[in-house]
């Protein structure tokens, strides 16, 4: 475990990086972040905690005909989108590339082949500019996104620590205890099978809806009764809770929905899709928030942060607001463009690491598809 | 001077100069560590050659053919390095570097040696190979590609070669290569550029579609 803490900055000089001349701006660093862990090519530029650019090129449309993210299709798209996205981000931020202080890149977790494109691009960019590079953790990046939402104008108070973070997307479903963004992040639980976003996609297919499933199920569910069908809540039975208190499982739920629909079809009945969608969505959201709120209570942490693309789901936000209010928990939801995978959150985390005094990563890091959250920065 | 990067097989990085040749080169045969080693290798050739970034007039990318996961790392790196420098990306077919190095060695070894037609073959994984057919070199020493690069089953190669080398009565030498020299790749780019030859397209030569099948709707879970 043991990722670098800002209280004990490492003084080891990385093997062959160390940018020669100018000392690193550690008060207000201008950082370019590169994110390629799944199907979004994200380039973000931040100055300290100020968001300057957030360009996202998604290959989602290309995955639609396959009903899910195809790693090879995503990785090919990253390679093609990389340079245009960097150009677009520079234009959006109104800066020149040689003005940046550092490059930050997602090292993992995520799809290995997709991550490698970002890692290769980021290393070459940093070396060409003779700037330091920070290899960071994607999941911790989602938490870092919240720093940008506060903005330089102080529109909202910055997030306090510790906080519980619930990060839900098509690629991950994780519950984190964040005591210090740059020094102390603990994984409380994660999905043991499908990610929540994947479950939405798979159930959408069962209901004959297009990919990605989330928005379509959300739309249908609005007209349905969430209590019409009682679908199973994965890993919530007492025997499961002993071992998997904060873990998630959506594979059984997906199968239960498919069974229910097939039974209705076999009986020649018309499938009440709105009710199925609403009941399925309720089961997912119920488990997600049930476990997140339990974690807040168990650890005595009155703060919950949401992140990941599934936050786009209206019911997730609605139920989160209800239940946190009832439990006296402060709820933080960054704007959607900072919730879905993006480069700005990676730049934000890189900037935090720089401001915390961390030394750059060496040039030898790779793409780590299973990078643990305790490894906030890969050295 | 050019920075050249190839990850179509292992990883190779070099700094080359048209007149002085290969100034620095680093190669790693491991085909699984492209992302890990590429940064250190770029830094190493810059340090060893003592060439300033501003002196580079372009960045050469080996466009393959190559197994996709690794191939992309080098192309992505070459493109962003070129972008950061504000210099052009120079795309070169990786097999051309193999043929160039082979013919150059042959020419250096035996005075007046005739360069035999050459079939370059590299591993494409999944029991397939990538191939390119060369007739020899032109007056600049650049390899002349007759056919390819292509993707084939190993047992289909003889027939393909017979066809490609038809004009040579089917006589050719076969070269199975596991490494691509970025130095050779860079020299192909230097010579081509000096002679005003066109480069290949800035597109990765995967020569394979992503192997996925569009979904035919959900499968039943109950029987
Ligand atoms: Zn994510």
TrEMBL record, chain B:
Lineage: superkingdom: Bacteria
Domain Gcp-like: 32-135
One Pfam family named in its UniProt record: TsaD
UniProt name for this protein: tRNA (Adenosine(37)-N6)-threonylcarbamoyltransferase complex dimerization subunit type 1 TsaB
């Amino acid at each position: 475990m043991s990722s670098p803490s800002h209280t004990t900055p490492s003084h080891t000089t990385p093997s062959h990086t160390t940018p020669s001349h100018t000392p690193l701006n550690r008060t207000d660093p201008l950082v370019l972040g590169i994110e390629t862990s799944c199907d979004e090519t994200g380039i973000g530029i931040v100055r300290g905690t100020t968001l300057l650019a957030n360009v996202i090129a998604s290959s989602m449309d290309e995955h639609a005909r396959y009903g899910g993210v195809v790693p090879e299709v995503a990785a090919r798209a990253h390679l093609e989108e990389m340079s245009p996205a960097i150009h677009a981000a520079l234009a959006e931020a109104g800066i020149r590339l040689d003005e940046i202080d550092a490059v930050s890149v997602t090292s993992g977790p995520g799809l290995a082949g997709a991550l490698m494109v970002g890692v290769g691009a980021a290393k070459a960019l940093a070396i060409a500019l003779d700037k330091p590079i920070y290899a960071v953790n994607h999941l911790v990046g989602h938490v870092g996104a919240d720093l940008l939402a506060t903005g330089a104008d102080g529109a909202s108070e910055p997030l306090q620590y510790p906080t519980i973070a619930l990060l839900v997307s098509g690629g991950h479903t994780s519950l984190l205890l964040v005591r210090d963004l740059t020094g102390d992040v603990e994984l409380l639980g994660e999905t043991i099978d499908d990610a929540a976003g994947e479950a939405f996609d798979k159930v959408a297919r069962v209901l004959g809806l297009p990919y990605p499933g989330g928005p379509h199920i959300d739309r249908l569910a609005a007209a349905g009764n969430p209590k019409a069908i009682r679908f199973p809540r994965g890993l919530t039975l007492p025997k499961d809770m002993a071992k998997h208190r904060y873990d998630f499982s959506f594979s059984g739920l997906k199968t239960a929905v498919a069974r229910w629909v097939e039974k209705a079809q076999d009986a020649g009945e018309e499938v009440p899709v709105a009710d199925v969608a609403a009941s399925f969505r309720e089961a997912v959201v119920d488990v997600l928030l049930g476990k997140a709120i339990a974690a807040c209570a168990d650890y005595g942490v009155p703060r919950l942060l949401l992140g990941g693309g599934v936050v786009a789901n209206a019911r997730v936000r609605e139920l989160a607001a209800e239940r946190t209010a009832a439990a006296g928990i402060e709820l933080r939801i960054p704007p959607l463009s900072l919730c879905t995978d993006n480069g700005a959150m990676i730049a934000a985390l890189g900037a935090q690491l720089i401001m915390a005094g961390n030394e750059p990563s060496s040039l030898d890091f790779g793409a780590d598809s299973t990078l643990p959250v305790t490894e906030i920065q890969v050295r | 001077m050019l920075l050249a990067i190839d990850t179509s097989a292992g990883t190779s990085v070099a700094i080359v100069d048209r007149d002085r040749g290969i100034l620095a080169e680093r190669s790693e045969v491991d085909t699984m560590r492209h992302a890990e080693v590429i940064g250190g290798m770029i830094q190493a050739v810059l340090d060893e050659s003592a060439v300033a970034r501003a002196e580079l007039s372009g960045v050469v990318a080996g466009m393959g053919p190559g197994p996709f996961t690794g191939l992309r790392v080098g192309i992505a790196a070459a493109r962003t390095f070129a972008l950061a420098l504000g210099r052009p990306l120079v795309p070169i077919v990786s097999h051309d570097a193999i043929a160039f190095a082979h013919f150059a060695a042959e020419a250096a070894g035996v005075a007046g040696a005739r360069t035999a037609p050459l079939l370059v073959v590299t591993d494409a994984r999944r029991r397939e190979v990538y191939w390119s057919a060369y007739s020899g070199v032109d007056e600049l020493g650049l390899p002349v590609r007759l056919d390819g690069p292509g993707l084939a089953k190993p047992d289909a190669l003889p027939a393909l070669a017979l066809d490609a080398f038809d004009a040579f009565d089917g006589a050719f030498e076969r070269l199975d290569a596991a490494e691509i020299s970025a130095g050779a790749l860079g020299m192909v780019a230097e010579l081509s550029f000096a002679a005003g030859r066109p480069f290949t397209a800035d597109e990765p030569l995967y020569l394979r579609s992503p192997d996925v099948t569009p979904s035919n709707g959900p499968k039943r879970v109950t029987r």
